[in-house]
């Protein structure tokens, strides 16, 4: 049975119909499976079904789900789901530990040669691109440069980027802009130069089964609104409250959608309804960016419509 793909015990959520999974490409047992798509589209449900029916280990490719402080608010697989199939790279990073696509790529590398074929699932497109297109070996950013970047307005960082780098990144995504600025400040070379010197990929796309959830806008927006309500019912507010004394808005872990909004409510700055509305809007905006990015960058992936 497909279900439970959105976090802790979301049994009543409206999951993609079974027919949506009848249009999959051939899933050979000797090939890794890659499943990408926007938030709330049903990726985890498909990964769990493949792992149970055809074998494999489910590997996280979502930047927010690596942190140990969040399960409900980031829709990590529940303990019940984790008991049904092996899972890797979920909730294994401390909330204040540095983590990047480079860290993820190093951790996923041994899983590509492990005893079980990986089923890599998530919504962080940069992880999939690093895996299938290669990733530049950029030196780590010195703490003093990162501290400067944390204090800079987005517009100031964008103004200092070279045109090629600026054209390649999501200029509305602060994390991507800041990363590009930090690389340029730390190495004296634009991020685009590092990317152009990228080594061969660990997993070329032709050696995998790449599946992209092409979720229609209206269908996805309805699921996003209902999912956040379920997160609240399942304890998202308590989860955020448990981090209140350690919350730092500058940390990537604390920028997970829903966390700043619920923290503002806990501090008495906004009502819970306002927090819910803001988090839902933020999720919709994020999903829109994901859909646009995936359609532009993943043209060779096999697409499925989860609403059919």
From TrEMBL:
Keyword Transferase tagged: yes
Binding positions for ATP per the UniProt entry: 37-44
Enzyme type, top EC level: transferase
Binding site for substrate: 39-44
UniProt site positions, description: Interaction with substrate tRNA: 124, 146
Signal peptide: none
Catalytic activity: adenosine(37) in tRNA + dimethylallyl diphosphate = N(6)-dimethylallyladenosine(37) in tRNA + diphosphate
A Pfam family this chain is assigned to: IPPT
GO molecular function: ATP binding; tRNA dimethylallyltransferase activity
Biological processes per GO annotation: tRNA modification
EC annotation from Swiss-Prot or TrEMBL: 2.5.1.75
Cofactor entry: Mg(2+)
Annotated keywords: ATP-binding, Magnesium, Nucleotide-binding, Transferase, tRNA processing
InterPro entries hit by this protein: Dimethylallyltransferase (IPR039657), IPT (IPR018022), P-loop_NTPase (IPR027417)
Task performed by this protein: Catalyzes the transfer of a dimethylallyl group onto the adenine at position 37 in tRNAs that read codons beginning with uridine, leading to the formation of N6-(dimethylallyl)adenosine (i(6)A).
Subunit structure: Monomer.
Family: Belongs to the IPP transferase family.
Name of this protein: tRNA dimethylallyltransferase
Organism: Jhaorihella thermophila
């Amino acid at each position: 049975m497909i279900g439970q793909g959105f976090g802790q015990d979301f049994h009543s959520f409206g999951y993609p119909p079974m027919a949506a999974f009848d249009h999959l490409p051939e899933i050979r047992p000797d090939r890794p499976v890659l499943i990408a798509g926007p938030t709330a589209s049903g990726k985890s449900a498909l990964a769990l079904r493949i792992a149970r029916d055809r074998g494999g280990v489910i590997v996280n490719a979502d930047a927010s789900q690596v942190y140990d402080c969040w399960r409900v608010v980031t829709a990590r697989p529940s303990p019940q789901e984790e008991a049904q199939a092996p899972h890797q790279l979920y909730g294994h990073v401390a909330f204040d530990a540095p983590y990047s696509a480079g860290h993820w790529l190093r951790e996923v590398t041994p899983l590509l040669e492990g005893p079980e074929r990986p089923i890599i699932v998530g919504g962080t497109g940069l992880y999939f691109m690093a895996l299938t297109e290669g990733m530049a070996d950029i030196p780590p950013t010195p703490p003093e440069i990162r501290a400067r970047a944390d204090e800079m307005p987005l517009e100031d960082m964008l103004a200092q980027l070279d045109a090629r780098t600026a054209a390649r990144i999501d200029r509305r995504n602060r994390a991507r802009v800041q990363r590009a600025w930090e690389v340029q400040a730390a190495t004296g070379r634009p991020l685009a130069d590092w990317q152009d010197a990228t080594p061969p990929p660990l997993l070329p796309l032709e050696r995998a089964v790449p599946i992209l959830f092409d979720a229609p806008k209206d269908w996805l927006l309805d699921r996003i609104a209902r999912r956040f309500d379920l997160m609240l019912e399942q304890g998202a507010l308590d989860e955020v409250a448990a981090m209140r004394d350690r919350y730092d808005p500058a940390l990537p872990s604390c920028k997970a959608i829903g966390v700043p909004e619920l923290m503002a409510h806990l501090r008495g700055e906004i009502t819970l309804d306002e927090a819910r509305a803001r988090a839902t809007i933020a999720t919709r905006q994020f999903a829109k960016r994901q859909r646009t990015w995936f359609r532009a960058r993943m043209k060779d992936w096999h697409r499925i419509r989860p609403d059919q």
